[in-house]
Design a protein that fits this description.
Elements: H1 6-19, H2 32-41, E1 45-47, H3 54-58, E2 71-74, H4 78-91, E3 96-98, E4 113-116, E5 123-126, E6 131-134, H5 140-148, E7 152-153, H6 164-169, H7 177-180, E8 189-193, E9 199-203, H8 208-214, E10 224-231, E11 233-234, E12 237-246, H9 250-268, E13 275-284, E14 292-301, H10 305-316, E15 322-331, H11 332-341, E16 359-367, H12 373-384, E17 392-397, H13 400-404, E18 419-427, H14 433-447, H15 467-471, H16 474-487, H17 509-531
Parallel strand pairs: 2-4, 3-4
Antiparallel strand pairs: 1-2, 5-6, 6-10, 7-11, 8-9, 8-10, 12-14, 12-15, 13-14, 13-17, 16-18, 17-18
Helix pairs in contact: 9-12, 12-14, 16-17
Amino acid sequence: MYWYDSRKIRNQQTFDAWDSRDIDDAANAIPQQAIKKLQESIQGSVLIPGDPGYEQATRLANPRFNFHPEVIVMCEAISDVQECLALITKYAITFSIRSGGHSTAGYSGNNVMMLDVSRLDGVFVDPEELIAIVQPGCTWGAFNKAAEIYGLHLPGGACPDVCQGGYMQGGGYGFTARIFGMNCDQPKYFYVMLADGSITQASATTNPDLFWAIRGGTGNNFGVVLATTYPMRVGDTFLGFSVSWDLVSPENRLDAARSLTWMQDNFVRSVTAKLGFQMVWVFDGPDVGPKAPSWRLMGMFDGTQGELEGVLAPLLAQPGANLQYFTGPMKYSALNEYLMSNPYEVPEFPPHINPDPPEENKASRYLARTLNPNEWLTLLDYFMSSPNPYTTVAFEGYGGAISARDVTFNAFVHRDVDFDCFMDVFWLQPENRQLMERYLDGWIRTIEPFWSGQVYQNYPSDGDGNFAQQYWTPQVYKKLRQIKFKYDPGDVFRFPQSIPPLDEPVVGDALDDTIAGDIERVTESRQSESDS
């Protein structure tokens, strides 16, 4: 029988190309021979500088980041991850795990080793058992297509290119999160590869501490999540709508400010959990031509058209409110795209820009108390001062099923808030970066008196030095550190905002009570600061 191993031949061709270069082992963290051995042992491919495809593989979703790792490993099998972890442990190197590369602080990248799991992108939907098994490299666009074949739904992300792995571990918000809960609230169990290469299950009954920590503790902290099993919901069709307020004149902005205050007291916290919505301040207009500032509120509804019109009637009675459209029933993925691009995309960039999308930066701040109209005007006026028309301020609406979960349910603690408010700034030319980042810094100072002290950990920023307090509060962070010590005592999984291990036992219910009190104290502290 003729046996032919094309992979072995390709490896030799790769090694010949590497040998022809003048590679200085002394300048690298990993010896060349070790990299060759890694390539021989994996099903995927190793890329080093100078290889075809290397430059493309270095790129993250945000072109602001420019990493050039010594080694990029494109994993194609679970055993590839195991081989990588063995090498990482042997040479004590830092590394990043990339599924979709969307970390807003660039933590998907690294200049030593990038472990890419985007090819571990399987999704299997069982319509009889109503479950889905998903690998970390599966995009939400691919997942929704697989689920909608069977008329099923799972709350996922608004961006179809975002992958499941990092998204879920940081929380996971989308249009139906308010209806069904955050994505991290959904999993039944995980398979996780730990730093020593072993594979363990995490669920409510097996390693429940790890199960708790992964759901909100952010990625690249406890292990590599290889697969997630979710329960699925029957029904993939929702009603859509969009309401807008003009922001052009001072009178328009005063109407909007009054409506925002009314919304916090009479809509966000009390409106039916059948409604999921997001808001955005944006400079609306065609890709080429004038743009006008506006506030758009768009959302999805799990009910009848008559029910939706009744729910929105008090909102539409507010000063300045204009109904842009009702969509009628649409499948989730199509409706998600429609809401984000009609009447215009958010934001609408000029055609043929390079890179597309352009470089960006963002800052997240949770809002938990009612802002009075003057406070909303302060934020609106600052938004209006944007140096370019591509700035957006988004508000992800909470309440509903998100707030229904107890704060100790998992490591995602942001339950008693109104919005995750984040500003996103973009620049089309490199020379404008400093200007736009100064503007973003000014926004952070402007919103400082109004925010809750919390930050959505799926929108990290390397400028948030007190991330432990902002993502989790001290007691939650302590519990995460204790769990980290149990599953990664050598701190193999580390990056600038990773969780360091703490050699202390995890206490049970008493600590959960402390966590709940901790959240309450943080909220009360921010309220007192605001009142004073």
